[in-house]
C-alpha cells in the first residue's frame, strides 16, 4: 500500500477530490459534513489501474486547524497539493507549502481542482503555483487539472498518481517500528484500537511494543491488525494500519501524538540539536515554541547557536533519530515559523564559556544522517547498537579511523591513548614498587574510564601486557624481590632439605619476610603460601602426594602428619590444599584417601 496526504487552502476541494477518487466519504464528523469544512483528519482508499493500493489522509485547510494538518502530513511520504483553478493561490496555500518544505516532502502531484468553475485557462494559476513551490521538493512535481464535479482529469490524475507512487523510495520492511498515532477509539468486543501511517518496519499480530505518550512509556501487545478494513496477520510499510491493542488501557488515555515503538529499539529524548532547513532565522526565533514531528505537537524551548543551528529542549521525551524533520511554530501563531532537521539526539552539555560558539561550529560540519566516525570520535568508544538506535545510517562497515572490538567501536586515537596510558602506568608501578603485584583491574578501569573498562582485555592485549592472578603486568616480567632476595634464598635452602618444616612467624620476621615480601615471592613462583601462615616451596604438594600414596588407604590426619614428618599446623592446611585441588578426597572428619 501507498499513503498520500492532501494539502491546500481551505475550501479548495481536497475532500471532494478524495471522494471522487475513492468513492468514500473522508469527512468522519457530522459537523464536517454539515458545514462542508474538514476539521480533523479524514481517511479513504482505493486501488489504481496498476493494482497499487493507495490510502489518502485528507487534512483540514483552515488556519485554525493547522496542527491537525501537520499531524496528517507529518508521517506521509507523498502529497497531493491542491489549488482551486478558479481562486488560485491563497493564504493557507502558503502555510501548507511551508509545512511541506519543513517536512522535506519531495514526492507529490499538484492538482488544480474546480476546473469547471475556472473562467479561462488554468495556465496562469499553474504558473503562480510553480513559482510559489520553487523552494520546495515539489517544484518539479507533475500537475493535473481536474473537476470532481464532471470527472474531467480524474483518469489523468490516477495515472499520474501511479507514476508518482512508482518513483517513491522502497520502504524498509525490516526497519524498527515507529507508528505515530493519529486516532484512538474503542470497538465493542475488541477493545482499544489506534491508527496511524506505518512508514517503515513490519507489525505482526502478537508483537510486544512500547506505547509512549504524555504519561510515559507502557508495554502493550498487538491483539489484531487491520488495514483498509481488512484483517491481516502482519502489515508492512507503507500502510494505513489499525492496531487492536491488548493493554488494559482505555482509548481515552491514548492521544494523537502518542507513538507505538518496537521494544528497546528507539532512544527517548527531550533534547536535540538541529539545523534550520527553511523559514525564519533561529537567531530571531522566540524562546518558546511548538515542535511538530510525526503526529505529535510538543512544547519546547530553543537555544539558538546563530541563525542556522539551535538546541531544542522538549517538554516530554519522544522517540527521535538523526535526520528527523521538525516543523516549528511560535506559540499563539498559526503559521509555520521554520523547519529543522535533527543533527544530534544525544548532545553534549554546554557548561563552559564559549560552548555555544564551539557547538555551532561542530554542528555546521555534521551530516543530518549522522556520520559514524564523527559520533565515535565524539564519544571515544560506543556500542554499535547505540549508534543504530540514534539513527546513524552508515554502519555497514567500520569506518577508517575506528577500531572494532565485538559490539564496540573505538576511535583509534582514543584507543592508542588508552594503550599508552596503561602500559606507562604498569611500567611506573614496577619502578616505584618492585614488590607490587601489578596494576589492579580496578585501577586500570579508573585510568582509562568506563568505556575503556568494558574493553580492558583488548587494551591489555594491544598494550603488550598480560594478566597474572588478577593483576596487569609486563609479559614475562620476573618479580624483583629487592632486599627480600637474601631472606627468600635462605628459606628456600632450608625447605629443600626439610620440605614440610614450615618456618614459624618469628623465623620469617628474622629473615625480613613480611606479608608483602612473601606475596611477591609467591607471585614469582618461589614460594607457596597456605592457610594459617604456612609457607612451603611450590613443589611441596607433589612431594606430599608421593608420601601419602605410600600409606594404606584411607589414612587419618595423624598418619599423614607422621608420614610427612611435620606438625598439625602444617599438615592440616596442606591436606586441605590437596583436597581443593582434587588430589585427595575427604571421607569423614578424620579420614582421607588418594583421589
TrEMBL record:
Keywords: Cytoplasm, Elongation factor, GTP-binding, Nucleotide-binding, Protein biosynthesis. CDD domains: SelB. Residues 1-172 form the Tr-type G domain. Gene3D superfamilies: P-loop containing nucleotide triphosphate hydrolases (3.40.50.300), Translation factors (2.40.30.10), Winged helix-like DNA-binding domain superfamily/Winged helix DNA-binding domain (1.10.10.10). The keyword Signal does not apply. Transmembrane segments: none annotated. SUPFAM superfamilies: P-loop containing nucleoside triphosphate hydrolases, Translation proteins, Winged helix' DNA-binding domain. GO terms for molecular function: translation elongation factor activity. It comes from the Bacteria. Its main location: cytoplasm. It is found in: Cytoplasm. NCBIfam families: selB (TIGR00475). This is Selenocysteine-specific translation elongation factor. It comes from Arthrobacter hankyongi. The gene is selB.
